[in-house]
C-alpha cells in the first residue's frame, strides 16, 4: 500500500483542475530569450566599460567584440581563461555582478526544465490552498447543457464562480468550466474518492445533472453519505425514478423530460402561456421567480395583498401555496416566493431587495432566482 500512495496523490492532483491564466508557448519562449539577451548585454556593457581591468592572452586591449566573447563564455560557464580580470575592481565586479548574472542566465536557459519540476509542487500547493478555502460551496455534477444552465443561474443569483466546483468525466467539459472561472474535477462522480476531491463534506449545495438516472441515484447516495446536511437537487429523466431518488437522499427532483414536454404542450395549446413560462425561466429581463424575506410592513397581511405577486410562503421549512389557509396572514420569519420584474422599474417595484430589517439588519433578501 505505501508504494501506491505517491501515485494516488499524483492522480488526485492531475484530476483537479483550477482556472489559470494561459500564456502562449511562443510568448513564454520569446520572453525568456529576451531576458537571456538582456543579461548578456548587461555583462558586455560592464566588461567593456571596465576593459582596462581585464587582460587578453595576447596582451592587447579588449575590444567590444572581446567583451561579447568574454560575456558569452562567462555566462555559459565555459571559461577558456584567455581573458581574465587582473585588477581588484574587475575581480570584485566579477564576484558581485557577473557571477549572479551567470546564475540567472543559466536559470533562464534551463527554465523550461525547472518549470516542469516546479509545476507539480506549485499545483499541489494551489490545490491544497483551494481545498482549504472551500466552505459552503456548490458542487455541480455534470457540465452538459443542464449543468451549464444551472451554473449560469447560480452566478446570476450572486454566487461567486470560485465557490462552484464542477465534476465531469470529460476533460474538455472541465476545461470549459475552468475557462468560466470554476474549479473542476475530472472523474466519475459515482465514486466517493472523486467527490471527496471537491470537499463535498463542506458543501452546502449539490446539483446532480447526469445523463442517466441510475448514475444520478448512485451520485445522490454517495453525496448524501459524505454530507448528510447539504441540499441535494437532482435532474431526473423518468418520473418513475423520483421515489428512488427521494429515498437516496435527494431534497428536490426535477423531471427534465416531463417538464420540457409540459411546456411544449402548454405552448401548443396557448402560445401566450408558453411565452410567459419561457420569460419566467429566463434571467435578467422580463419577469423572474425569487424568494425573499417578509418585510416588517407586510407582517399580518395576506399573501394576496403584497406589492409583488406571491405564489407560495415558506414557514418553518415547509412550503405552502399562497391560498392555503395556514398562511392567510404573514408572520415575521416567513419567506415568500414571488413573481416580480427582473429589474427595478418606476411602475414595477421589487420590494425586499434594498430595505432594512426593523432591528437595523439587512432583511436577507438573498434571492434564489430563476
From TrEMBL:
Coiled coil (residue ranges): none
Annotated localization: Cell membrane
Entry keywords, A to Z: Ion channel, Ion transport, Membrane, Transmembrane, Transmembrane helix, Transport
Recorded topology in the membrane: Multi-pass membrane protein
GO biological process terms held by the UniProt record: monoatomic ion transmembrane transport; potassium ion transport
Keyword Ion transport: yes
Entry's Gene Ontology cellular component terms: plasma membrane
Record-annotated membrane-spanning stretches: 29-50, 92-118
Pfam families referenced in this protein's UniProt entry, alphabetically: Ion_trans_2, TrkA_N
Source superkingdom: Bacteria
Name recorded for this polypeptide: Voltage-gated potassium channel
